[in-house]
Amino acid sequence: MHSAADSDPELQAILARPGYVDLHSHYIPAVDDGVHTRQEGVELCRGLSGIGFGAIVATPHMRTAMFDNERIELQAHFARFQAACGRDEGMPALGLAAEHFCDDVFWARFERGQVLPYPGERAALIELPVDAIPLGLEERVFRMNLKGVRPVLAHPERYAPLYSRTGAIERLLQQGVLPLLDVMSLEGKYGRRPRKAAERMLAEGVYYAACSDAHKPSDVARVAEGIARLRKRVGEAEAEAMLDERPRRILRGEVDR
Ligand SMILES: [Fe+2]
């Protein structure tokens, strides 16, 4: 099926590259808690390229009162970064989306079309508070589905209600929300409980795909270790699918779940 999204040049550039596709990273300088300078951004992108990522979508935080990023500003920041270094040797294909914190501001923006879905606009990355799954999330997800934007859930293993069991997101999973593993959780970056939760959710088959969620160049070694642990846990073929085939399916709107 073809739509306007198929001719999106950013999406096409990403899909044309071989290698892993990272759907969650913070390489745009000075817009959130990711890299501080353009040089660090380039270093992070090159580092991820060096461990197998052919394409990286930046997902700066959009979170009220913490990272007050507007769509139009982030697009300008991304365009500047892309123009300055996106075509340098060793750089992966770049794309822009956002990591949307699920508060009322986000939902109002979503209804007005002022959020930043993934290139192609068939899915968007959402983040929840660490201590509670928000009430009424099912209705919000229903609205996203209605608009044809598949919700991708950032690092479920890092939310306290999911540390020991997955039940709190069971309904969301039935609604088609796609959990995205942060591979650094397996490496232990966030501590023991998120690591254990990630291991359990992998065994349960909860995750659809995996990402780096890298915030700085020094994260690259941890991402590499996380990928090595992912391979050990789920096997080569499933790890490859989580990092390569399925992120592409999300972007193309061809999710098989
Ligand atoms: Fe993130």
Ions, cofactors, ligands: which are bound?
A: fe (ii) ion
Low-confidence stretches: none
Task: Give me the side-by-side strand order of the main sheet.
Answer: 3-5-6-7-8-9
Largest sheet, if any? Answer: 6 strands, parallel
SS class: alpha/beta
Shape: globular
Query: Averaging pLDDT over every residue, what do you get?
Result: 96
Do you know the CATH architecture?
A: Alpha-Beta Barrel
Number of strands: 9
At CATH level 3, the topology is TIM Barrel
Relative strand content: 5-15%
Total domain units: 1
Q: Total helix count?
A: 10
**First-last Cα distance:** 18 Å
CATH superfamily: Metal-dependent hydrolases
CATH class: Alpha Beta
Instruction: Kindly state the percentage of residues in helix.
Output: 40-55%
Q: What is the fold's blueprint, element by element?
A:
Blueprint: H1 9-16, E1 20-22, H2 38-50, E2 53-58, E3 61-62, H3 71-85, E4 93-96, E5 99-101, H4 104-112, E6 123-127, H5 137-146, E7 150-154, H6 170-174, E8 178-182, H7 183-187, H8 192-204, E9 209-211, H9 219-234, H10 236-252
Parallel strand pairs: 1-2, 2-4, 3-5, 5-6, 6-7, 7-8, 8-9
Helix pairs in contact: 9-10
Fe (ii) ion (FE2) binds near residues 26 and 213.
